[in-house]
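One chain shown below:
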Amino acid sequence: MPWVRFSSILRPEGVRRPCVVVPCRSSTAVHPSSPEVPMRRRPAVSLVLVLCLAAPFAATAAHSDAPQTLVPIGGGYSTESLQGFAVQAMSAGSGDTVDLYVIPSSYGDAPQDREENLALAQERTDQIEAACDDVVDLAEFSGGCEATLLPLLAREDALDPAASEGLDDPDTDGVYILGGDQVLAMHVLANSPAEERLATAYSQGAVISGTSAGNAVQSRSMGAGYPEPGYPWNALERDMSLIFWGDDLGSEERGLSFGSQQIILDQHFYERGRFGRLLSWTAQSVERYGGAGKLGVGVDWGTAPVIRDDAVITDVFGASSVALLDFSTATELDWVGPRETLSVRNVMTHLVAPDTGATYDITARAVAQDGGTVPVPERSALPPLATSGRGTLWLGGGDNDSSDSPALADFVAQAQDATRGKGKTSLLVLALGYADETDALAEVTAYTEAAAELGWTGDVDVRVHGTDAIPASVVARAAGVLVVGGDQSLMAQEVADPQLRSALSQAIQRPTSVLTDGAATAILGEQYVTDVDPTTEDEAIAMFRADEVSTAPGLGLVEGYTLEPTLTYDYRWGRLFGAAHDEPEVISLGISELTALEVTRHGATVVGERSVIAVDGSDAFWSTGSNGALGASVVWLDVFSTGDAIG
């Protein structure tokens, strides 16, 4: 049985690899505290729905040629997202009331939990009705809103026509599918009278919406979580996430029968760092279906796009933005290394934020801004990435502090070789960006112990910036220089220190092995992100706000790039886009944990367990949504994995 992992905190104190494990097909009650139904408080992000309500609603009967509308919400039950759904349902409204139905099929099918699950689902139904009543135009709908819970918890319910009675009534204006477990939801609904009635309602113009799992079922090719060893941070590996392609309508391993056949939806997208798995699924769709494959549509918490007739994405509303991953321009798609990790160039990405004038034509694979198609220019090559010296520089993405790290192993081997008759005797270890010496020395110890395990037999000279001097003379006699970084927000003094810059520059120019890791890698770039290192999902969402990511000039030892470590483990995808927004001509390069770029005079190559992501905003059209979210059209994205060359 497949399992799904959800993480509520990226790196809680004392836990290096956090996760909560729940079965993919749950048979228990879904409580409000369930990872798939997050109820945490979030900073309020305003979206003025009054503008949407300014246009009058035509209360006309639904008919067969009515627009077919999907409104997949990326997670949660924020008032704003529920009101956004209600506004769309009103636009297709008929009769004197806004008639809504709520489906709880993702909640759990165990008989002993039925009463509790129905009670919880009724609470959500009441919440949806109240949100609708808050925005309804009583001049058009004198009866207000009426939301009805359908008791579709188990397979037997969906097979009983009485349980879904009224769903396909021509007066039905909207249907909302609750969050929980999408695999369970389709086990309940697939090939049943309930699904048939849902399809009829959709064809008659009823708006189909839902959150989290209720989002996932709205694309025929449906994401189904992670297998036992899968996580967001290794999801670029081919087999580390699950998708049901939905080619066989007779199977329950799919999304809804009428769900989008053009896109693959994912939810909690920024919140849970899911770029990796959606890139993987979209790449696999290219191989499966040919051409450009399916469009990847990543929807974040409290946010939704409006998808019309499976052809146009428009009217994004809610807390954040929607990410689009388009492989129509992609080149060099491959799966590399022992883990079959995705490698691809020139993926076209867009961030669609509310009220920016951006829409997307799914069929033409084209974004429009204020009604005009945004041109796609020929892309420029990435800046060269090489050293001018004779030594090797490893740019580590963090957590290269064990003997399992290929980058650390190669670094130690070269440094040890430099002690043999070459006058080099010590391993110089520099600790940068720590709140105090105790923290610095504690973290350095893991690296020095791992170096000893890998065969280092010489002296170790540890120096903490701000406490110990770092003269050029110590670099001259070092067989290798290992630079360990703490927090990027604590690096201002290091970047401003000319002695440190000179020492690192000399080390790179000499035939000396140099390995930087974590925040120490970040400051070597032309620019670096100066914000406090993130630890929560809320921060992962906030990174995609236009004003959230702060950058400053780095040491400039790696020109043309902003370097961002710990990319996939800490869900730092937003920093790549934010830095590209701040400095569009500087490439954002995200280096995953347990991974490094090995840079020599001949170029740079990825080594280690995971991937390096390049985000190129030099051709982008940038905007800011009415909710403060970052919007962007035509942002290039590259995925480099083990053995790939960069620059």
